[in-house]
Automatic annotation (TrEMBL):
GO terms for cellular component: cytosol. GO terms for molecular function: magnesium ion binding; malate synthase activity. Monomer. Its cofactor is Mg(2+). It comes from Alteripontixanthobacter maritimus. Glyoxylate binds at R319, E415, G440, F441, L442, D443. Residues 315-549 form the Malate synthase TIM barrel domain. Pfam families: MS_C, MS_N, MS_TIM-barrel, MSG_insertion. Pathway: Carbohydrate metabolism; glyoxylate cycle; (S)-malate from isocitrate: step 2/2. Keywords: Acyltransferase, Cytoplasm, Glyoxylate bypass, Magnesium, Metal-binding, Oxidation, Transferase, Tricarboxylic acid cycle. Involved in the glycolate utilization. Catalyzes the condensation and subsequent hydrolysis of acetyl-coenzyme A (acetyl-CoA) and glyoxylate to form malate and CoA. This is Malate synthase G. The modification Cysteine sulfenic acid (-SOH) is found at C598.
Length: 714
């Protein structure tokens, strides 16, 4: 048990307490004693309410489980099912017509459309890369990925043939987005001679080139004849730099492994550094030490000679954890762990108050009103009463930090079935602070499986993508958001492109998110953000949204994806188990033994997929469901886990810090993976966090004992 220091009625990790009192509170002129007393009072009110909401989740789930068990073997009665869900309060009455009242929102969120990154807060280098991904080189993105349909670059320096193909593709992009009054960009020998069909697209000059705007996004056409590209280009164009990741979600949740005070302090310190503007990270590359820091603003000389600036960085959201988890960083007066989501709300907001008060180097939030906002994404909320709780919590945090009401904005992640089914009421509960809704296939599918665990065996994972409920879910999210006025005031987002090495496929498929009405969508890297930005030049999302808004009813959304009358072959069963087990093990081993919450994990075909904790939820719940209904046996599941452990070991053979799982009875990662499956039906809402946190803490303890006092697993 770690030592604690007393603060008001709380017991706080000493290092965390010192960090808060030395670095977070003084700049915002918060007295430490007053802060801790206010924090303790807030917890006395909200911690019991938090527990009651979790008990309500379990009560509803128990009633749903019983309803399905009582009707086992009977045809599903859609009408009776929905009436039952209303009787128990799972479904609530939708509010009447209303429009959200959110104010003081940055243009990047409200009136601009573009890519969004999600980055783990614990990795400072990745965090800096994401924040700086506001601007990206189109030439680099095309040269180094399969988005360009041309032979790959030859190793050993600049490949002129590949470069020529990149330049040609760049000219096509300019002709498409910035058409000339006559001729093509390919014909220009001097960019100063460019006469646009729409002169209003010209913005001014930058340090290296000429700045334009299309569909609200900027394009910096850079000229430098001294570079390998510019010296061979007719017009001396050395690069085309696109405004790319307008926003970034800095994640404290699904993409990190933070289980104790030390982890949380690192998370808060990195958030403080990126908000304050002084975060730096040094690393070795090519035998040299390099230091990364936040990019400055982009200077622009306007046509009348006046000077202006454009932001050099994404507008940052911070994703707090949900309502479920607790953390030992702070203990309440009764000795129980603090609800982690409440701790995140207070401390990330306290850090962001420095930005609101203008004490930061650059400024994260800079709306035209001049009143800065704090942007928090809140995941894994179940229904409108949990959204209302978050609204009340943010009210209390604002009062505690002397912030104006609704300074703290909220992004609602529509990834739980009860939220999807009551989305209008969820939005209404946070109607004056909402800036974001989005969909997420993996978590939403995991909750779909767990909620209907007793209804029967689920269809295979691949079939979920064409299931009635999923199509209705995606369409309802956009339609309900538009109905209540999110267009032009907030983001309507779509989920992650999972394959960072398959950019060509992304360029073909991901434009569908815009055509469905989303004005932002997640991408896995800065390079992907630059490529995805092309989609926002090809489609004007706000114009597309005008023709959307039809909202499918509940019948399809609540269609349970049970596999009726299906008789899978042994080969099909083995294939499905292997697919689930391999992805689960490949992620768990890094989470539990290495503390890596988001990474590129090879699939069965060795295609790298960006995975976070949502991957485990769907895979473990699917295996648990088939096991629960006797589709597969425990022996079959264990056989798959053991064989896939060997596969994952092989995929990680080049990692000197990797500990093989196959054949090791003491493998903590393998034990964790087994628990996720064999105890899957017992996990709250099918979440993986309780088991992962317990096993990660065990892994830290084991390594600490081996290395001596003060050691920690990395």
């Amino acid at each position: 048990m770690p030592d604690y220091t007393n603060r008001a009625s709380l017991r706080v990790d000493p290092s965390l307490a010192a960090f808060i009192e030395a670095e977070i509170l003084p700049p915002i002129e918060q007295d430490a004693d007053v802060f801790w007393k206010s924090f303790a009072d807030l917890l006395a009110d909200f911690a019991p309410r938090n527990r009651a909401l979790l008990e309500r989740r379990e009560s509803l789930q128990s009633q749903i489980d019983a309803w399905h068990r009582e009707r086992k073997g009977q045809p599903h009665d859609t009408s009776a099912y929905q009436n039952f869900l209303r009787e128990i309060g799972y479904l609530v009455e939708e509010p009447g017509d209303f429009t959200i009242g959110t104010q003081n929102v940055d243009a990047e969120i409200a009136t601009m459309a573009g890519p969004q990154l999600v980055v783990p807060v614990l990795n400072a280098r990745f965090l800096l890369n994401a924040a700086n991904a506001r601007w990206g080189s189109l030439y680099d993105a095309l040269y180094g990925t399969d988005a360009l349909d041309a032979p790959p670059a030859k190793p050993g320096g600049y490949d002129q043939k590949r470069g020529d193909a990149v330049i040609s593709e760049g000219r096509k992009f300019l002709d498409e987005t910035l058409p000339l009054a006559s001729g093509s960009w390919s014909d220009l020998t001097d960019i100063a001679d460019a006469k646009l069909a729409d002169p209003g697209q010209y913005v001014g000059t930058t340090e290296r080139g000429f700045l334009y705007r299309h569909n609200g996004l900027h394009i910096d056409v850079q000229v430098d004849r001294t570079t390998p590209v510019g010296e061979t280009d007719r017009a001396g164009i050395s690069d085309i730099v696109l405004e790319s990741a307008l926003t970034t979600i800095v994640d404290l949740e699904d993409s990190v492994a933070a289980v104790d005070a030390k982890d949380k302090q690192l998370a808060y310190r990195n958030w403080l550094g990126v908000i304050r503007g002084d975060l730096e990270e040094s690393f070795e590359k090519g035998g040299r030490t390099m230091t990364r820091e936040l990019a400055g603003n982009k200077a622009v000389t306007l046509p009348d000679g006046t000077q202006a600036e454009l932001p050099g960085r994404s507008v940052l959201f911070v994703r707090n954890v949900g309502h479920l988890m607790t953390n030992p960083a702070i203990l309440l007066s009764d000795g129980s762990e603090i609800p982690e989501g409440i701790m995140d709300a207070v401390l990330t907001s306290a850090i962001s108050t420095q930005d609101v008060r203008g004490f930061t180097r650059y400024g994260n939030s800079r709306p035209s009103s001049g009143k800065a906002s704090i942007y928090i994404v809140k995941p894994k909320m179940h229904g409108p009463e949990e959204c209302a709780f978050t609204n009340d919590l943010f009210d209390a945090v604002e009062d505690m930090l002397a912030l104006d009401r609704h300074t703290i904005k909220v992004g609602v992640m529509d990834e739980e079935r009860r939220t999807s089914a009551n989305l209008g009421a969820c939005i209404h509960a946070v109607r004056d602070r909402i800036v974001f809704i989005n969909t997420g296939f993996l978590d939403r599918t995991g909750d779909e499986i767990h909620t209907s665990m007793e209804a029967g065996p689920m269809v295979r994972k691949a079939e979920m993508k064409s299931a009635d409920w999923l199509g209705a879910y995606e369409a309802r999210n956009v339609g309900i958001g538009l109905r209540h006025g999110l267009s032009g005031r907030a983001q309507i987002g779509k989920g992650m492109w999972p394959a960072p090495d398959l950019m060509g496929k992304m360029m073909t498929e991901k434009i569908g998110h815009l055509r469905s009405g989303a004005n932002t969508a997640w991408v896995p890297s800065p390079t992907a953000a630059t490529l995805h930005a092309i989609h926002y030049h090809r489609e004007n999302v706000f114009e597309l949204q005008q023709g959307l808004g039809e909202v499918p009813g509940l019948d399809k959304l609540l269609t349970i994806p049970v596999a009726t009358g299906t008789n899978w072959s042994e080969e099909e069963l083995r294939e499905e188990l292997d697919n689930n087990a391999q992805g689960l093990l490949g992620y768990v081993v890094r989470w539990v033994e290495h503390g890596v919450g988001c990474s590129k994990v090879p699939d069965l075909d060795d295609v790298g997929l960006m995975e976070d904790r949502a991957t485990l939820r769907i895979s473990s719940q699917h295996m648990a469901n088939w096991l629960h209904h006797g589709v597969v046996t425990r022996d079959q599941v264990m056989d798959s886990l053991q064989r896939m452990a060997a596969k994952v070991d092989e995929q990680n053979a080049d990692d000197p810090n990797y500990r093989p799982m196959a054949g090791d009875p003491d493998s903590i990662a393998f034990k964790a993976a087994c628990d996720l499956v064999f105890k899957g039906t017992q996990q709250p809402s099918g979440y993986t966090e309780p088991l992962l946190h317990a096993w990660r803490q065990e892994a830290k303890k084991v390594v600490s004992l081996k290395r001596g006092p003060g050691s920690q697993i990395r």
